[in-house]
Write a structure and sequence with these properties.
The protein is of the alpha+beta class. The protein folds into three domains: 73 residues, no CATH class; 159 residues, no CATH class; 63 residues, no CATH class. 41% of the residues lie in helices and 14% in strands. The protein has twelve helices and 14 strands. A hairpin with a 2-residue loop joins strand 9 and strand 10. It is elongated. The relative contact order is 0.11. The mean pLDDT is 86.
Length: 356
C-alpha cells in the first residue's frame, strides 16, 4: 500500500534526523523511481530485481495518493520554534570579538589594514580609542576566522539570491538553509546584509568574489559592534559557535579560481578555431572522500542519512557515482551496507542531475 510505504520511508528518514519536508522529498522520489521501473531491491534469494509497485496504479494516481499521505504526516510535525540567540551591540559586541581572539584597530588608519601587528586585543588601548569617540573598528581574521559577506544593498545584486543560485538549499547543511536565521554566528550590517563567521585556520584561499553580492573575506573586516553614519554592525550569536568552513565553500572557491584563470588565459591568446575555446577540464577535487565521510559522520547518526549526505557531497565535489559507491562499500563501519545502499547512492546522483 502506498500510504504504508510513504509512512515507513518518511519515519525512517525523520528518525535519522532529517527534516519532515526533506524526508517527504526523498520518499516521493523513491516511490516515483519504483513506478518508473528505475528502482532495484533484492528478493528473498538475494537477487537484485526491479522493485514492484506497492499498488497497481498509474504513476499520476500513485503520486497523488502519495502526496495526500505526505500532507497528513507533515501535519504531525509542526515547525520547531526558532532557537533563542544572544544579540550584542556596540562595546558588548567588540568585547565578544576580543574574547574570541580577534584583534582590532582604528578603522580609519588604512596603512596597517593587512599588518597583524597593527591590531590589538589590549582592552585598555581599545578603551582609550572608545573614550576618544572612536566607534568604528577593523577586525583581523586571518588564522582564526573567515567571513562570507552577503551584500543586500538597494539597487545592487542581491547576494542572498546569488548564494542560493550557487548552492540550492536542499543540498546545503542546515546552518545555511535559511540565512541568516539558521546560521549560528553572524553580523547584521547597516545595509541589511550579513557577515557569516566560519572558523578557518587553513591556507589562504586567495579569492574574493564568489558571485555578485557574495564575497569571501580572509584578512580584515569591519568589527562587530562598530557604528557608522547609517547604522551599526550587530552581532548575532556566539563566535565560538561558528562552524568550520564547509568543503562545498572551498570547492566553490576552487571553481571560481579556475574560471578566473581560464578567462585570463582566453583573453591573453589570439582567438583561433572553436576547439581552442573549450573550457579547461576540472582535473581533481581538493577534498578527499575521507574528508567528506568525516563531515557526513559528524552531521548524521544513521547509516542511511550518512549515505545520502556523503553521496550529495561527493557529487558536488565532482566524484563519479562509481567512485562514491566503491568508497561507501569499503566503509561499512560508517555507512553500513544493506540492500538499499546501491539505490540510495544512485538516487542521490540522479536527483542532482548526475549520470548514473
Amino acid at each position: 500500500m502506498i500510504i504504508a510505504f510513504i509512512t515507513e520511508k518518511m519515519n525512517h528518514y525523520i528518525a535519522g534526523g532529517m527534516k519532515p519536508e526533506n524526508a517527504a522529498q526523498y520518499a516521493r522520489r523513491e516511490l516515483a523511481a519504483i513506478y518508473e521501473g528505475d528502482h532495484y531491491s533484492r528478493d528473498a534469494s538475494g537477487t537484485l530485481r526491479v522493485t514492484p509497485p506497492p499498488e497497481s496504479l498509474d504513476l499520476k494516481t500513485a503520486m497523488e495518493k502519495a502526496d495526500a499521505a505526505i500532507a497528513g504526516i507533515i501535519r504531525q510535525y509542526p515547525a520547531p520554534a526558532g532557537k533563542p540567540r544572544n544579540i550584542y551591540r556596540s562595546s558588548d559586541a567588540i568585547k565578544r570579538a576580543i574574547a574570541a581572539g580577534i584583534s582590532i584597530k582604528d578603522f580609519y588608519i588604512k596603512s596597517g589594514d593587512n599588518d597583524p601587528t597593527a591590531y590589538t586585543t589590549d582592552l585598555q588601548k581599545i578603551k582609550a580609542l572608545w573614550d576618544a569617540g572612536q566607534r568604528r573598528f577593523k577586525a583581523y581574521l586571518r588564522g582564526k576566522y573567515l567571513v562570507i559577506d552577503i551584500d543586500r544593498k538597494p539597487g545592487k545584486p542581491d547576494g542572498l539570491k546569488a548564494f542560493y543560485r550557487m548552492f540550492p538549499k536542499e543540498t546545503l547543511p542546515s546552518e545555511l538553509q535559511c540565512l541568516p536565521e539558521s546560521f549560528p554566528c553572524y553580523t547584521q550590517t547597516p545595509s541589511n546584509g550579513f557577515h557569516l563567521f566560519f572558523k578557518y585556520e587553513g591556507p589562504e584561499l586567495k579569492t574574493r568574489e564568489l558571485a555578485p553580492g557574495v564575497e569571501l573575506i580572509e584578512t580584515q573586516i569591519t568589527c562587530p559592534g562598530s557604528r557608522k553614519e547609517n547604522g551599526e554592525y550587530i552581532l548575532h550569536g556566539e563566535l565560538d559557535k561558528a562552524p568550520p568552513l564547509f568543503s562545498l565553500i572551498i570547492d566553490a572557491v576552487e571553481e571560481a579560481k579556475r574560471k578566473k584563470e581560464q578567462a585570463k588565459a582566453e583573453r591573453s591568446k589570439p582567438r583561433a578555431k572553436a576547439a581552442a575555446d573549450r573550457p579547461v577540464q576540472y582535473k581533481k577535487p581538493r577534498i578527499t572522500l575521507d574528508d567528506l565521510a568525516d563531515e557526513a559522520t559528524a552531521a548524521h547518526a544513521g547509516n542511511h542519512d550518512r549515505q545520502v549526505s556523503f553521496a550529495g557531497r561527493a557529487f558536488r565535489c565532482k566524484y563519479s557515482v562509481a567512485e562514491t559507491m566503491a568508497y561507501v562499500k569499503s566503509r561499512a563501519d560508517i555507512f553500513g551496507n544493506d540492500s538499499d545502499t546501491n539505490n540510495t547512492i544512485l538516487s542521490v546522483f540522479r536527483d542532482n542531475g548526475g549520470c548514473v
